[in-house]
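Example (one chain per record):
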Amino acid sequence: MSNDISGTVADRQRSRAGRRAAVPNPAGQIAPPRQRRPALAALALLLIVGGALVAGLLAVRMDSRVPVLAASQPIEPGMQITEEHLQVVRVASEDIPVIPEEFTDEVVGAYATTRIEPGTLLTENNVSSEDPIPDGRAIVSVPLVGELAPAATVRSGDLVQVVRATSASGGTEKAEVLGTAYVLEVTEPETDDLGSSTDLPTASLLVLDQVALSVIDAAGAGEAGLAILDSGLDPDVDLEDGQ
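Predicted structure:
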């Protein structure tokens, strides 16, 4: 047997070198490019397109809001409207008979046909180019107090009899007829977030001027009652006093 092991050692060294060359170097390996997932890419595209559509719809919605006239302060029935009474707001005017800002000159000098609260939009129903108070008549407001004047039954266009309901000494109700009146409008009070209000509905009444003070006095004392005589009438209906 030969004792020369140099060939065997050389063979082993070459074998180890070959194995090292055959094993890839993790540190130097270049990872292949990742493949994108089609579903995620499609979802991202949908989100981008959806966001653009929403933004477009909002822009169109804002463009549909037009400048219109509203009351900047309370306007009493029959009062002539001035520039100080007006403000401009932007609203979506579909199906609302609002008055565009461009008609400001026509509204200034016109008359309020009913009481107009601040922030209320001006419409063809609460503004008139003609004085709504004919000679010999006046417009007064009467709160619709429960059993005296139920808000659920009094309507615009009604002819009503205005009475003063006072308590007699015997504890019974004694009614004094003040006159007849035409109901111009019934205004509901504003409510809070819970739907409640401390105010009462009010009726704007067209009455003869000689009974206006009596009606105002009865309304202020919470004693004004209304009895409906007729409905669906025009404002030029004949009115009477309580004499």
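Caption: Strands lie at 65-71, 86-92, 111-112, 127-128, 137-143, 159-167, 173-187, 202-208, 224-230.
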